């Protein structure tokens, strides 16, 4: 039967790609209120697709924010297991637009890659699941197992409402295990099982000085410069050896074992310098770049602004300055506690002459880890290997998927992360793309997997 | 004769105010290419006014940038002295617009103040000079002395082309002394002679890291964060005691004498905390706020930007970060040398994993000081006292007027700074204004002064 399904996918490849392009053309930027309608349109696209397959009980569920698309398939019978498939149809903002080589919302294939915002994160990966479900129905008339679909529209804004939905609808959403495709492989065509994810948390620091921008000639020497004050605060939080200098930040961090260091070293990751274009890579003292990115906590300033940013010079002392910070956490770090440590540190080092405000970002998640030898994980590895004809590797990654930690927390069920992205996908950046190989082999992997786990 | 002139100004007060409003309504923002035409219109306004008075040889001189308005009056005869009057008709950008209580380019009088961008810096002060010249001509049929007018349109962008013009047209512009009204008094209705100005210079620091914004989960731990790198660089340039920690920055700085400390302490300046709204004032260790603002060099970050500044969170490692810095200099500090010291410092402390570029701003000027007991200065003090019926005080200020240093440098002639602005004018900020008292008494002061210096 696998052959028929694969044949269908092959014969309908062009039509499926066109349908994916239609999906990618909708600018469903969840963080920008101006795209509220587009987010709805993306949800409607999925609703229509699920009804066509057909799934049952297809509905757009109100969440208080952007809607969540839910659907069920129960045709595999009482004996068959039930999987909860999670994905998200919202995307990151596309700015800075001028850095894109093609319109982020007019998908374009160049050199074996499909370029578009969301091509990899996560519309492309959501789509191949739907395509595989379609293929099973059109050829076999049924799916190998029962399926519950949960595709949200708020992942890129921290899945603000999902946690409550998962708790309130525990009965409706409960399944034997969950499958999520919102991650990547360590290299193109290198099957990869993701057994660990980082958690994260964030704060926004605002330094307020004078109540209006001041002429630097009239007031320079009488007031504290908010940007300089912010610089002093930020530089006190991480040193030049990339060690976070916030008291207690590393308390309780699960150490990296020697075995894990070997595992991390074995897996050939991407060339960070080549992929990022930096003069040289820089990592926490005592750890390699791969160890730091996969298994050590990070502290990043995502953005900063204050004063005059236009052409030429404006000789002012600005009234305020703001920095946005997010941290990626590892097992042993409680997001709420880290947020509190960051706030305590900032308040303690804040200089005189200004007022400093620390806003705790709502989005937060604990780190997640699963045992690499779990049966569902092993079957995933086999399915990958069949499709890609290559041994599967096991890695942890620095990314965070809040829903994983929440499902783990609320449903206590195994979660399998089947990612098909690649390091070259430029997630969250200009020129995001997804390899056509991952489109084809990703679908094949899923066909094998559903057949392997159906008992 | 003075009475006739003052009477004319009084009788035509409303019409003159309407004419000033017409001048202030032109958004002649010199730093913004979008306002190029408006800058031309402001120049044309002055050309028309000068021709009406009438002045001779009125012309818009090409400078390579915005035009300079030149005119002459030689009717006072060979024996009378010739003054070169300088001012500027360009203004600072009005942003942030939302902080204005009335349209910056629709002048409005509230509580005895005229609110508009340029009301004080420098259109308002240029205008009262023109009004006084008009008054002399309309009543006496002549001016008390010969006048050369030089009103430029690039002061707010560092008078980029003026230096060359002053050199090339030395013959045409030469005079016995110069008068400039582009400064202020220490308090409203407190006649003030400005005998010292700070020089200034600036640099722009740009830190480049990855060649595109990176997903902080995928690359956090492998690359240096450009914003954090910039924070480390900036925080190394001035400490929390407001002491600039760039090697050699204070070398050769003319110390503040005890006499001068007394002079500075005597003059009641504004309440910095009240005027700026800061929690508390902060100044260089060992100096009062008045000493630091008037007679010690300053270092200010005017603006900073990098990464995501929009709503919500964007978990990226930004590709670059930039900071704009300007310093105010005192006698003994060479602008070029200070720029070099700043660049050397930045290059020395720049961390690994990023490339750091230091752009030296073209605008630069040395500090300026004149002897308080010069005859032309004493006469100015008397004229102020007649108009304001109050003793004149002598101060240095932290502001910089490049043209002063350049005229000093090229023409070696006395320069008299007759300022009528006040500390509450909010120069370069939202809600800039000019006191109506300064409009009236400023004109009266000028009438007295031209009569006093005509021999």
From TrEMBL, chains A, B:
SUPFAM superfamilies with a match to the protein in the record: Bacterial exopeptidase dimerisation domain (SSF55031), Zn-dependent exopeptidases (SSF53187)
Keywords tagged on the record: Dipeptidase, Hydrolase, Metal-binding, Protease
Sequence ranges assigned to domain Peptidase M20 dimerisation in this UniProt record: 195-352
Coiled coil feature spans: none
Keyword match Ligase: no
Family annotation (InterPro entries): Bact_exopeptidase_dim_dom, Cyt/Met_Dipeptidase, Peptidase_M20, Peptidase_M20_dimer
EC number in record: 3.4.13.-
GO molecular function, one term: dipeptidase activity
TM regions (residue ranges): none
Tree of life domain: Bacteria
PANTHER family, per the entry: BETA-ALA-HIS DIPEPTIDASE (PTHR43270), SUCCINYL-DIAMINOPIMELATE DESUCCINYLASE (PTHR43270:SF12)
NCBIfam families (alphabetical): PRK07907.1, PRK08201.1, PRK09104.1
Protein name: Dipeptidase
